[in-house]
Amino acid sequence: MTKLYWVADVGMREAELAFSGTICIGSIVKLTTINNQWAWEIEAVRIGDFIRSSGEAPSRAQAKDDLQYSWSQWLAAAGLS
Which residues of 32-65 are buried (b: 16+ CB within 10 A; e: fewer)? Predict the structure, then answer.
């Protein structure tokens, strides 16, 4: 499994960018309208209906885990893992 690494998104207060190698593949951001909810999204590739490319989670850690899981599924489907 390719482990993502996270970098604070300078342009946003509570957001992080997910990198695989040198490519930014997605992000997480705290939702201001919903208490303690985080949104996540894989943005670098078109995923298709069989793998989730976005969602919401109750915590920052869960949003990161959810994005990592979907990215791992995409890598496997693409034959890259």
Answer: eeeeeebbbbbeeeebeeebbbeeebeebebbbe
Neighbours of 7 (CB within 10 A): 11
Domain ranges of the chain: 5-77
pTM: 0.85
19 close to 71: Cβ distance less than 8 angstroms:
no
pLDDT bracket for residue 62 (50, 70, 90): very high
Closest CA to 4 of 78, 55, 48, 69: 69
Block residue for tokens 């207060």: 13
Higher pLDDT, 48 or 31: 31
Query: For the residues 34-49, what does the mean pLDDT come to?
Result: 84
